[in-house]
Write a structure and sequence with these properties.
Order of helices and strands: HHHHH
Strand content: under 5%
Structural class: mainly alpha
Number of helices: 5
Radius of gyration: 15 Å
Number of strands: 0
Largest sheet: none
Distance between the termini: 18 Å
Shape: globular
Amino acid sequence: MYDDIGKLILRLTLGILMLLHGIAKLRYGVAGIEDMLVNHGLPGFIAYGVFVGEIIAPLMVIAGWNARLGGFIMAATMVVAIALAHGSQLFDLGKQGGWALELQGFFLFTALAVALIGPGKYAVNRR
């Protein structure tokens, strides 16, 4: 029972916090991401994939509907985000001594955990 409550807390925390980033992209657009992609020699339209990784996948994880897939999509989104936007900070420490990419690391590794352990009992389809 406690394992399933823990999985629910993990899913809700990850899903809600990532969804807030997606809502911001809906409100303010993805022009900055488009520019970053173009600067890396990639097509700008790929930026719209952020809506899958930061809106659709978090909703999947929150509901527990194909949560493993949603977790994998969010983890992949974070790998791309780290590579494109934060690669130069990979080994940096922040002002308080923690890893400079704590937030990105949180999203990446908790998404990976959800993808590996699944949604638990309190889920729409337990996948």
